[in-house]
Amino acid sequence: MTIQHRPANLPHEPEFEQAYNELVSTLENSTLFQKHPEYRTALKVVSIPERVIQFRVVWEDDKGELQVNRGYRVQFNSALGPYKGGLRLHPTVNLSILKFLGFEQIFKNALTGLMMGGGKGGADFDPKGKSDSEIRRFCVAFMRELSRYIGANTDVPAGDIGVSGREIGYMFGTYRKERNLFEGVLTGKGLTWGGSLIRPEATGYGLVYYVGHMLQYAGAGDWKGKRVAISGSGNVAQYAALKCIELGATVLSLSDSQGCLVAEEGQSITPEDVNSIAEIKERRQALTTFQHGGRLRYINGARPWLHVGKVDVVLPSATQNEVSKEEAEGLIAAGARFIAEGSNMGCTLEAIEVFEAHRKANKKQAIWYAPGKAANCGGVAVSGLEMGQNSQRLAWTAEEVDQRLQDIMKNAFTNGLETAKKFVDTDADELPSLVAGSNIAGFIKVAEAMRDQGDWWTL
Predict the structure, then answer these.
(1) Which terminus of the chain is more solvent-facing, meaning fewer CB atoms within 10 Å of its CB: N or C?
(2) pLDDT tens per residue across span 25-38
(3) Burial track 382-395 (b if 16+ CB lie within 10 A, e otherwise)
(4) Domain 49-184 is in which class?
(5) Per the confidence metrics, is the pTM higher than 0.90?
(6) Does residue 128 have an active-site annotation?
(7) Given 120, 130, 189, 373, the catalytic residue
């Protein structure tokens, strides 16, 4: 595996280095650098952020005591448009995680076909256990500092883990007052003040639309009758589950950081279950509080992958590195044919290697893996559509946004598929590598834009 040269004076950044190595390994194992050796220069440039902003966030809790957190914004690449990527509020947030997310965001945004660069930000603030007033005071303090560096044509953040419509509202209001501007500076806004229909559903819906093209290309039909394992219980997992059920699939699992819910034999997760779980998560409570009447089984401290039994489609939709090598092997043994990441970097490198080796060895009967930068790009795609609506001072119908989302996901799938056929040696009866094709397609688009703008060059 190719490892980025890291000067001795820089700290180890495991999440970022994993994301970098996953991209580089697919570029190296293709014919891209043979056909275009000059792209090695582009790789050196694109792997370093254009700008990293770090600041302190000082706020007051309900007891009147001072609290302080670290805030960040990684403005990674603007060759294709304003920096675009979410804000994450979670105690695990650090620079390595945000660089990994920002690096992935560059190529994900490129695959949408929209004019968006890549960035990511957030803070090591934990919203769990905080009152609404404490969350509001934190968001105000955070945006007072961040507002210096963002704007509708510069950097347009969105939500991520710990940042939903409530937090976006507090931050947007602070930006408006601090800068005396009402503009499309954040996405995921309320529908009455610049938000877009289908934005909350977009990542989950887009994931299901993307996998629908995988099913069709592989000759597996449509979603009807498919047994689906999903992790997570936030926005992505909820709407992916609802869309799967709508299209005739059987959803077997959901999860959170404490454990997983798995359907008992002959049972499944219903839309009513998903709606109840959404209410629980809105109150920031654990899945242990969900009353399922014995139809589901709660497994403490476990992910669902080795507990769902026979499965056709796997949708990791919680967080990074949630499918290990052993779990990848277990999913294949359980009959899984398709796995697509609703989360960012949901599978470890070792798990991806298992999936790719199985794809090579078992041809069209293999498991087929799709990376998050392609499969979950629907969320940022509709954020881009929200930016377009804001620029026009218009609001599109849900049907129009949903159709545009479907078109974007189809194009992302086709782009990755055709690029894999062009740059990766593939047997006639073998499913093309979507991870290689998506990485290469996104990389080429960004590299060419950077070259045209003078960000890199060769003699």
Answers:
(1) C
(2) 999 999 999 999 99
(3) bbbbbbbbbeeeeb
(4) alpha beta
(5) yes
(6) no
(7) 120
